Amino acid sequence: MRTPIACLLAVFILLAVPGCSGRRHANVLVILKTKSYHTDRCPRVRMANTRLMTITEARALNCEPCPGCAPGSAD
Ligand SMILES: [Zn+2]
Predict the structure, then answer these.
(1) Which residues are within 5 Å of ligand 1 (an ion), measured at CB?
(2) Distance of alpha carbon 67 from alpha carbon 7, whole angstroms
(3) Dist. CA 58 → ligand 1 center (Å)
């Protein structure tokens, strides 16, 4: 018989890790032309050439958050 504690621990780790990293590294759409990043709901990204990346990556490229859709304003 297997120990149920080991199974519970494995499930807990699987649930906890993506839940944590998902919030901290939210994906944004970057418009490289204007060096701005947006949420996927922003109307400004519809006609633009965008790249999907995390906020951390967008900031590393010196991109500014869009004042309209304010991505990452929660953190
Ligand atoms: Zn926007």
Answers:
(1) 38, 42, 44, 66, 68-69
(2) 46
(3) 13
Residues 16-26: pLDDT tens digits?
A: 655 544 455 68
In order of 3, 7, 9, 23, 68, the CA distances from 13 in angstroms are 16, 10, 6, 16, 36
* Rounded Cα distance, 7 and 23, in Å: 25
pLDDT of residue 6: 80
Quote the ligand 1 centre to 33 CA distance (angstroms): 13
Domain ranges of the chain: 26-75
**54 near 31, Cβ under 8 Å?**
no
Name the band, by pLDDT with cuts 50, 70 and 90, for residue 10: confident
CA of 9 to the centre of ligand 1 (A): 40
